[in-house]
Specification:
Elements: H1 10-14, H2 32-40, E1 42-50, E2 55-60, E3 65-70, E4 77-83, E5 86-90, H3 93-100, E6 109-111, E7 119-126, E8 139-142, H4 150-157, H5 165-177, H6 181-185, E9 192-200, E10 207-210, E11 219-224, E12 228-234, E13 254-261
Antiparallel strand pairs: 1-13, 2-12, 3-11, 3-13, 4-5, 4-9, 4-12, 6-7, 7-11, 8-9, 9-10
The chain binds zinc ion (ZN).
Organism: Cognatiyoonia koreensis
InterPro entries: DUF1989 (IPR018959)
Protein name: DUF1989 domain-containing protein
Length: 290
């Protein structure tokens, strides 16, 4: 492959300073005082174990807290979120990344797909927020990976592996909703990689993973801004220190817990997105919606 000759002003072009694509200053800031109060007094309602190399679903009413917890050993999880009454409103990893950056932590929100684009959940506590960004550029809880899946495995290594997160999420969603596997698969989407430590290599820009710093007892608390159906896969990569998409790594369960805060005073569910939905096409009144 031959590379094009750089122009005379190549260095000057590279030296142009970047600007943030989506400054989030315009977003209403999350009321962290409210979330801290909610966390301080809440009662456990439900628990759900996610077995290793499997996924499980749990419903989280709006105003409740979903805790995703490491138990037994270091393990990463792949999380899908849906509006409980409408599977077409689902977590939008790409837009969440554009708004909050490559990795989520306390105060960041998980946004839903178009035409909704509203906060589904807010990260209100993260016992790994001390990690920051390491010298490799790695950090925890990414929204850059997609989910391990059997199609990419087949493309790269010719395998037929059935316990990738994509398949685990598909089976768990089908079991929870009664949809066929084929119909459920169409709803599975790019995930929040809970506890996974990832980044991009500086020299080639490739997606990398490294052993997760998570230890039993660590957890991530998500406040449900709307009624949610959460599906979590305990990734076959275990702590993702070496490989995924196989049975080689040591894997551990994950725990999902749902808590009900004693008081929601001061909290309001998110408003519908204000875009008019016309895409510039005028519909005369009386002819129905779009
Ligand atoms: Zn996975």
């Amino acid at each position: 492959m031959t590379r094009s000759d750089p122009p005379e002003d190549a260095d000057a072009r590279r030296a142009v300073a970047p600007v943030i694509c989506y400054p989030v200053d315009a977003l209403p800031p999350p009321d962290m005082d409210f979330y801290e109060r909610a966390r301080a007094d809440m009662e456990l309602q439900q628990t759900q174990i996610v077995p290793p190399r499997e996924a499980a679903a749990i419903r989280v009413p709006a105003g409740h807290v979903l805790r995703l917890k490491s138990v037994d050993g270091p393990q990463v999880g792949d999380l899908n979120l849906f509006a409980d009454d409408d599977l077409s409103e689902r977590f939008y990893s790409g837009k969440t990344r554009a708004l909050h950056g490559t990795h989520l932590s306390t105060g960041d929100r998980m946004w839903s797909s178009f035409p909704h684009l509203r906060p589904m959940a807010t990260v209100i506590h993260d016992t790994l927020d001390w990690y920051g960004i390491d010298t490799f550029g790695g950090s925890v809880h990414d929204v850059i990976g997609t989910r391990c899946d059997p199609y990419t495995g087949n493309l790269l290594s010719g395998t037929q592996y059935h316990h990738c997160c994509h398949s685990n999420l598909t089976r768990a969603l089908a079991a929870e909703t009664g949809l066929s596997l084929k119909d459920a698969e169409a709803h599975v989407h790019d995930v929040l990689n809970v506890f996974m430590c990832t980044g991009f290599t500086r020299d080639t820009g490739q997606y990398f993973m490294k052993a997760s710093p998570v230890r039993p007892g660590d957890y991530l608390d998500l406040f449900a801004e709307i009624d949610l159906l959460a599906v979590l896969s305990a990734c076959p990569g275990g702590d993702c220190s070496a490989e995924h998409s196989s049975d080689a790594a040591a894997c551990y369960p994950l725990l999902m817990e749902v808590f009900r805060p004693a008081s929601l005073a001061g909290w309001e569910p998110p408003a519908k997105n204000g875009y008019d939905g016309s895409h510039g096409v005028h519909v005369p009144s009386g002819e129905g919606g779009l």
